[in-house]
Specification:
The complex is a heterodimer of chains A (183) and B (588). With 183 residues, chain A is α+β, with helices and mostly antiparallel strands. The radius of gyration of chain A is 20 Å and the shape is elongated. Chain A is built from 5 helices and 9 strands. Chain A has helices at 35-45, 75-87, 97-100, 117-129, 150-160, and strands at residues 21-30, 52-59, 64-73, 91-96, 103-114, 133-138, 141-148, 165-170, 174-177. Chain B has 588 residues and is α/β, with parallel strands linked by helices. Chain B has 23 helices and 20 strands. Chain B is globular and about 70 Å long. The chains are: A alpha+beta (183), B alpha/beta (588).
Chain lengths: 183, 588
């Protein structure tokens, strides 16, 4: 039986080897019940990827929220994602920040590490090196707050594993374009 | 004019303000306040169905045959879940529906109350949009916005879920028809530069084809007129999808017949061999394209659609034009007349010669018989005996549907109702009831299969109660014919569960409901039976016994390219199993 990618059947739309791109989308939506479910349902229903997703109201008077989605896919899939999002009634705008030019992407993580003696000291030193702040401490634990690009967070968290990593909570990516212009 | 009234009154008032004359529905506990208001007025007529699914399909038939929004009223819980199929059907085929569903009182939402379900959650992926109204202040605005969303842009179904306590609450109602509540504003005008680019391509084409779809019908009668004008101005051959039939007349000079899996040889080969394709209100779905990497390999593709997500979804196109078909065609025709003041028929004469050579294959040919009624023949006779009347045809799903599409000549838009995208068995009969509700004096025929008709057979009772004389012509071959055809073709002729044993006596069944039953077994009896069916003032079930093993050809097997189409000459009904090799069978 041919693998999906090798098949020529109309049932297998998966394309053969294509470049996978990572895009950060800002989606401005009405802040109303169910809007997040619509967005997430669209991704799961059509088989798109969500790497991270953050949402919060950003303009209270206009009842608008901003959803920041980091997604991956072929260029054609990324294009479909944007067009499909555009079909949702409560969606006002979709901006592909990755195409819009230079952007700032930041994520915040809270990282709990448990340990005594040498590992504990090392965890603290590494935290300083990564500009992570100590938000809570006991004689045998720390909770660090670290902000930065996702790969910096990944690196910090992996360094904490041998030093007694207990728990991680991450926000997902918030992103904004550089320079004076708004969306 | 703002007035104080209850939520239930607002529902009925909004329907009246929207010009709704008929709704289809079924009552239940949570919907009783609305039903009480329905009872106390006579502007909106309610058609009581026997199953909510049928209310949905009836509203679809109503909408497709009138161009208006179809309206459904159902209760909470099972009433709403039974609507999932028609809502999905309407979403796939872009049919404007508003479904008002009752919900348990707001204080019971989330408690697993009796007949509670998460209606907005369940219907979110199968509607264009949906609303749960939790404040009486929002109800009037939401109801009118639901109609606006359903009918504008790419039409689709909208659900408004109204909890029972909101139906009882009092608030201020205002006629907000035309008001805009959400940011939804579909773009109608196409980009003129893109249209100019398209016209330049079309003017230089040597082997053009127009590929027209359901979007033309949805855009309205003006779009269909413009399509006809474009075809006659350009002289291009034209084919249509299943849902687009009737937008261009089957008797027209440019007509190639339907394209796709069961389309004609000339339509599919013209699509395969063209150099410029003009897609209008289409979506390049898999039943049209076949094998995508071999689809029309040498053409520049122009694509007009109101839904931007249709562009490049399945097939990469060269000139996407976002807009309403009628608006875009208006501009396109104006520019065409500038660019090509005098048509040059000679430029595409060799192409027409080729197309006519394909036509000469007569791909819809079938073996005639004096002993058994061939299903294709039954459709041909139905066409000949009904074409002079104002006839609406609906179908169920399967072989009979394809035969109807192939052999009935559709001359006008909005006269053909079929479940294209979702392929819903059980669609045709209730849809015919919806059509007949809108067109009391017209002849409405549901072409059915013996399997499909049994999926909503209970609606006979609806037709009898409301004096809707729909005619159901069952092409009865005792099989789920399309399933059997695929099993023969692809599964070693192992006919797993595709034979309808214990077939009901359809004549007696019709009579049991108070309708008329008819049967024909031989070709010689066919015309009389069709005439008797037409003449009846009652609903009719016509059990038309057809050749049991007939197969629907031509056929492009899934995963094959357009030029690999199977023709009737290639394959007799009995040895269809040998046509596709082992490797091909895996692909489907």
């Amino acid at each position: 039986m041919p693998l999906p990618g090798e098949s020529h059947s109309a049932y297998f739309y998966q394309e053969t080897v294509k470049t996978i791109e990572r895009h950060t989308l800002a989606v401005i939506v009405d802040n109303e019940p169910g809007v997040l479910a619509r967005v997430i349902g669209l991704f799961s229903g059509r088989g798109y990827n969500i790497e991270t997703l953050t949402v919060s109201e950003t303009e209270h008077e206009k009842h608008l929220s901003r959803i920041t989605i980091v997604t991956t896919g072929t260029p054609a899939i990324i294009q479909q994602i944007k067009l499909q999002l555009g079909r949702l009634i409560p969606v006002h705008r979709i901006v592909d920040l990755t195409l819009a030019g230079a952007i700032l992407e930041r994520e915040l993580a809270l990282v709990k590490v448990r340990g005594k003696g040498e590992p504990r000291v090392e965890a603290l030193q590494l935290a300083e090196a990564f500009n992570a702040r100590v938000m809570d401490a006991t004689t045998e634990s720390f909770v660090f707050e670290i902000t930065g690009k996702s790969d910096k967070l990944d690196q910090f968290i992996s360094l904490m594993v041998p030093l007694g990593l207990v728990e991680v909570s991450r926000t997902g990516v918030a992103a904004i374009g550089r320079g004076p212009e708004g969306l | 004019m703002a007035r104080e009234m209850t939520g239930a009154q607002m529902v009925v008032e909004a329907l009246i303000d929207q010009g709704v004359e008929h709704i289809f529905g079924y009552p239940g506990g949570a919907a009783l306040p609305i039903y009480d208001e329905i009872f106390q007025q006579d502007k909106v007529q309610h058609i009581l169905v026997r199953h909510e699914q049928a209310a949905g399909h009836a509203a679809e038939g109503y909408a497709r045959s009138t161009g208006k929004v179809g309206v459904v009223l159902v209760t909470s819980g099972p009433g709403a879940t039974n609507m999932v199929t028609p809502l999905t059907d309407a979403l796939m085929d872009s049919v404007p529906l508003v479904c008002i569903s009752a919900q348990v009182p707001t204080h019971l939402i989330g408690t697993d109350a009796f007949q509670e379900c998460d209606t907005v959650g369940i219907t979110r992926p199968c509607t264009k949009h949906n609303f749960l109204v939790k404040r009486i202040e929002d109800l009037a605005g939401v109801l009118h916005e639901a109609f606006r969303i359903a009918r504008s842009g790419r039409p689709g179904p909208v659900v408004v879920d109204v909890p029972k306590d909101i139906q009882f609450k009092t608030g201020i109602y205002e006629n907000l028809k035309g008001a805009v509540r959400t940011s939804y504003r579909p773009r109608l005008e196409g980009d003129e530069r893109a249209i100019r680019h398209a016209v330049a391509l079309m003017a230089s084409a040597k082997k053009p084809v127009i590929y027209s779809g359901g979007g033309v019908v949805n855009s309205g009668p003006r779009a269909c007129e413009l399509l006809r004008e474009l075809a006659s101005l350009t002289g291009f051959p034209l084919t249509s999808t299943l849902t687009g039939l009737g937008a261009y007349p089957a008797s027209g000079k440019a007509w190639l017949g339907m394209l796709g899996m069961h389309g004609t040889y000339e339509a599919n080969l013209a699509m395969h061999g063209c150099d410029v394709m003009v897609g209008i209100g289409v979506r390049f779905d898999d039943r049209i394209t076949g094998r995508t990497d071999a689809f029309s390999p040498n053409s520049k593709k122009i694509h007009i659609d109101i839904d931007a997500s249709s562009f490049n979804k399945n097939i990469r196109v060269d000139v996407p034009i976002l807009g309403d078909v009628a608006h875009v065609l208006e501009t396109m025709i104006r520019i065409w007349k500038e660019v090509v003041p005098k048509p040059d028929a000679a430029a595409i004469a060799p192409w027409w010669k080729q197309v006519n050579a394909w036509r000469a294959k007569k791909s819809l040919r079938y073996q005639k018989s004096a002993d058994v009624i061939m299903p294709q023949y039954a459709i041909e006779r139905l066409y000949q005996l009904t074409k002079e009347r104002n006839t609406y045809i609906t179908t169920e799903v399967g072989q009979h549907q394809m035969w109807a599409a192939q052999h009935y000549g559709f001359e006008k838009p909005n006269h053909w109702m079929t479940s294209g995208g979702l392929g819903t068995m059980g669609y045709g009969f209730p849809s015919a009831i919806g059509v007949q509700t809108a067109h009391r004096d017209a002849l409405v025929v549901c072409v059915a299969g013996d399997a499909s008709i049994q999926m909503n057979i209970q609606e006979l009772s609806t037709a009898v109660q409301h004096d809707l004389p729909v005619k159901v012509m069952i092409l009865n071959n005792q099989y789920m014919g399309m399933v059997r055809q695929w099993q023969q073709l692809l599964h070693g002729n192992r006919l797993s569960h595709s034979y309808n044993d214990a077939m009901p006596d359809f004549v007696k069944l019709a009579e049991a409901y108070g309708a008329m039953g008819l049967r024909a077994q031989r070709p010689a009896e066919l015309d009389d039976a069709i005439e008797a069916m037409i003449a009846s003032t009652k609903p009719v079930i016509f059990d038309c016994r057809v050749a049991s093993m007939a197969n629907c050809l031509p056929m492009i097997p899934s995963g094959k390219a357009h030029n690999e189409i199977l023709l009737p000459d290639d394959v007799a009904d009995e040895d269809i199993g040998d046509v596709i090799d082992a490797e091909g069978k895996q692909l489907v």
